[in-house]
Structures are given as C-alpha cells and as structure tokens.
Amino acid sequence: MKILTTTQMRDADRFTIENEPIASIDLMERASKTLFDAIKSRIRKNDTIKVFCGMGNNGGDGLAVSRMMLLSGFQVETYKVNYGDKASADFLINELRLKKIRKAQYQIIEPDSGFPAINSTDIVIDAIFGSGLSRPLEGFAAHIVKHINASGAKVIAIDLPSGLFGENNTQNNHQHIIKADYTYTFQLPKLSFLLPENDQFLGQWMVLDIGIDKDYIERQDTPWHFLLDADLKPGYKPRSKYDHKGRFGHTLLIAGSKGKSGAAVLAARASALVGSGLVTTHVPAGNYSVQQSSFPEGMVSVDENTEFFTQIRDISPFTAIAAGPGLGRDPKTANGLKLLIQNSSRPLVLDADALNLLAENPTWLSFLPPNSVLTPHVGEFERMGGKYSSGWDRIQKAREMALKFGCYIVLKGAHTAIICPDRQVIFNSTGNPGMATGGSGDVLTGMITGFMAQGYSPLYSCMAGVFVHGLAADIAIRKTPMESLVACDLLLNIPRAIKKMFY
Fold it and tell me: For burial by CB atoms within 10 Å, which of 63, 88, 217, 474 has the most?
C-alpha cells in the first residue's frame, strides 16, 4: 500500500471529485457516513459527545458526523472554533444542514469567548484542523487544543489529531497537538503515524476507505509504503509435487558464543520453519552439543575455538549466509567477520554483534556484497549511523546509508521499516509490543535468511520475514499475554502465520 503526502491526498480527493464524478459535498458526506459508522461502536447513547469543528473541510466532516449522531439519537454538542474569517464551501453547507435540526446544540467559540466545560466522562470529537495545517499551532487554536487535552475526556480525532502534521513533526510544538485516544484517517495511513514520537498523539488509529480513486493513487510516485499481505501473495512460490530439499537452498548461520548458544538455535529453527531446504549452523566448539540436541533437523559446523567464532573456511555450498546472533565481539571474531565480508559474493544478512562490529569498523560497510541486509534495532543503528533526534531523523539517516552502501536496512521497531538501496521505505503492518523480548531478533534473522536461501530476492525476503514474524506474534497473543511472549512462541506460530498468509 502506498503512503502519500497530505498534499498528494488532497490532489487525489480533487481527482476523484472530477473523474468519478462526484460533488465535493457528496464525497464529504460519504466520508462522514463511513466515519460515523466506525465511531458509533465507540460511543453509547447516554454519552455526552462534544464535537469541535474548525472552519475547513475537516470541520465540515465534524459537522456532518454531528448531524448523523443527532439523527441517530446521540447526545451531541457541536462547537465551531472560529479561528478566521473564511470557511470552506462544504463547511458552510454542512453548517446549514446541522442548524436545520431543531434539537441541535450549536455554539461558536471565538478568541474572546470562554471555552466550554469538558468533563472527563465526555467524548470529544476533534475536527478542528485535520491535515490542513502548514505551521505549528499557536494563540487561540493552541489554547483550545490544550483545553481539550487537559480535560481527561476520551478524544476521537478525524483524519489527523489537530496540530499534527502528516509527515515531518521535528519542528512542531508537541504541547499544541491533540492527544487522541482514537484516530480515524481516510483512505491511506499518514507517514507520521508510523514514527514513534507521534504515538502519544494518535492512540489507536484506523484507516477508513472512502472511495478515493485507487487507480490515481497507484499512479503516484512516493518513497513511502505500508506492507500488507496483498503485497506478498503475488511473489510467493508454492511447492510442486516433485520438489525436494535441494531446490530450497542451504542456509548458513554463523551464530552463538559462550553463554549465547540459544541465539544460534532460535535463528536456525526459524530458517527451517520458513522453508530453507537445509540449515547449517557454524558455532564455537563448546556449543556443539547444545546446537545438535536442540535442533536435530540441522547440521552443525564447528569452529576451531571453543568459545567464539573465528573463521569458516568454505562458504561455497551455501545459498544464503547470516552472521551475528549471539556472536560476541572478540577481536578474532571481528577478523572472521571481515574475511566473511571480503570473501562472500552473495548478499549477507548481518545482525546483532555483527552490526556492533561494523559500527566499530565502519570502513567495512563499503565492502559489503551488494544487496546485503542489515537488521539493527534502534540502539544498533545509532552505533552505526550516529545520533538522531527523532524517528523521522533516524529514517532519513537510514535512507542515506542504504543508498551509500547499496544495502537493505531492516530497522526494527513497532512498525519495522525496510529501507531499500533506492531510498524507498516499507513499513510493516504486523506485530505487537510482546515482541520486545530477547531472541525475537534472532528469529527474524533466521527467517529472512531462510527466505533468501530459497531464491527469494533480498527485498522479498525482508518483506516476508518482517510480515510473517509480526503475524506469528499477533497469532501468539490470542492465547498468550504480551508480557509472557517469548521467542519460542514466535517459532511455534510461524507455521500458522505462513498458513494464514499463503494457503
């Protein structure tokens, strides 16, 4: 799914109006009806609902929703936030429609008037600005936002919480942004929804399809994407009757050190569970027994050192290679990783301590095989890419790094972002906070490498890896509390996730 800027979405609205064709006021009515149908499940007939409407089309949506709520028997008070001299044409039409309802309670809030009381038990619907802002809020508008935030009421935002920009908020005033409990946005997610610093404003967000022209959206250029199952299904390769293990590749995982044998086990099992025909794990000699007994389906290559990785002499049999989980950072390990980078002609998957060693030796990045995959969490990325001020800044740094070194960066987080060598960014849609547990990243490394071993491209392997990884966690929490989720729960649910995705 593409993610468009707020400017592009306004253009998409305009195109739909001109080419569906549909009158602007009728498109607003369609959007508002979809919005009302979604919101009414969040409210009760005895709730006091206070709708704050700006003077643009976001306010017009609010007025239309107010009317629909009143006609359905809800208790609604509607407030026009009169912050300027001009209102949009569709706002004025919906204002007249609302005023024709005899029981409508409609008041105007102006800079010199007091603000209405808001109780903590009220439901507030924020339709003040939406996506129509070009600069941070200040003055009267900022005061009404702070008044709503201070009320303790449950807040439902239409399209965007007022004060929040759709893209970059690094220069925004975070004290002057509505803090919503629910955000209902139209047609596509906003880029700002996928950045961690904005979570405090959004609450739970949902995308509502209001019938914006989909062909027009598909024709738009954008570097931003939101990964859904429909993006993966066309590239999946079903198995045929006469296939055998030799057709599904051979994964090599260089992982584990003294006290960290579990990382190698988790990664190896994950690689097999996504379909790698053969899996070999290269481990220190002291980890041999653990690896062989914990993962009998795999083969084990033993390092000459008993406690950590030093080298692997022949990598020619393998179709995909990963290094890093539980690896340690001994100087001899660093030298072994350097040799691996120099000798590999295939893309590598590097995680955990392999990334930490790259951060200590940044010149090695230039020697990575093209289209290699780096899978840092935010701390590992900071060590490689330097300090950043926000999620927006981090994404920009990752885009420049991916372009410079011709690699894919899987930046792990709540919406794991796959940054491509051409600076495209794909945000994942699956997963939950239960994944914040040791070993989760080792499982992901094994999954991505297992997909690559089967001949999937690095990009598809990254997308399938992060999506199925998150989906396995989503399936797991149906029976397991998030606090209790462990990496082995992800392994147990990988088959269920694959079945749900592709069968």
Answer: 63
Which residues partner with 418 through β-bridges? 410, 426
pLDDT for 79: 98
Residue with tokens 């709540």: 414
Determine the Cα–Cα distance for residues 242 and 503; give it in Å rounded to an integer.
19
Q: Which residue has the tokens 């607003």?
A: 28
Q: What is the pLDDT of residue 132?
A: 81
The model's pLDDT over 262-277, given as tens digits with 9 standing for 90+, comes to 999 999 999 999 999 9
Using CA atoms, how far residue 295 sits from 270, 274, 280, 320, 448, in Å, is: 11, 15, 10, 19, 18
Widest CA span of the chain, in angstroms?
86
Q: Are 255 and 327 in contact (CB under 8 A)?
A: yes
Question: What DSSP string runs through 137-194?
Answer: --HHHHHHHHHHHHT--EEEEESS-TT--SS--TTS-GGGS---SEEEEESS--GGGG
Please report the pLDDT score of residue 230 as a whole number: 97
Between the CA of residue 337 and those of 264, 315, 459, what are the distances in Å? 16, 13, 23
Stretch (H or E) spanning 106: strand 105-109
CA distance 55 to 407: 47
In which residue ranges of the chain is pLDDT below 50?
Answer: none
Q: Nearest Cα to 397, choosing from 429, 414, 374?
A: 374
CA distance 81 to 147: 13
Q: 154: which strand partners?
A: 123
Residue type, 59: G
Q: In which residue are the tokens 């509502």 written?
A: 208
- Please return the burial class of 129, using the count of CB atoms within 10 Å of its CB with bins 0-12, 13-18 and 19+: buried
DSSP readout, 279-322?
A: EEEEE-GGGHHHHHHH-TTSEEEE-SSSSS----S--TT-SEEE
At 80 the three-state DSSP class reads strand
- Tell me how far apart the alpha carbons of residues 205 and 160 are, in angstroms, rounded to a whole number: 10
pLDDT tens track for 448-494: 999 999 999 999 999 999 999 999 999 999 999 999 999 999 999 99
- Rounded to an integer, what distance in angstroms lies between the CA atom of residue 153 and that of residue 119? 6
Exposed e or buried b per residue across 10-48, where buried means at least 16 C-beta atoms within 10 angstroms of its C-beta: eebbebbbeeeeeebbebbbebbebbbeebeeebeeebb
Instruction: Report, in this order, helix, strand and coil percent for the chain, each rounded to 5.
Output: 45, 15, 40
What is the token pair recorded at 196? 């961690």
d(CA 262, CA 295): 11
For residues 55 and 471, what is the distance between their CA atoms, to the nearest angstrom? 41
Q: Is the pTM of this model over 0.85?
A: yes
Residue 85, pLDDT score: 86
pLDDT at 75: 97
Specify the DSSP element, H or E, that contains 331.
Answer: helix 331-343
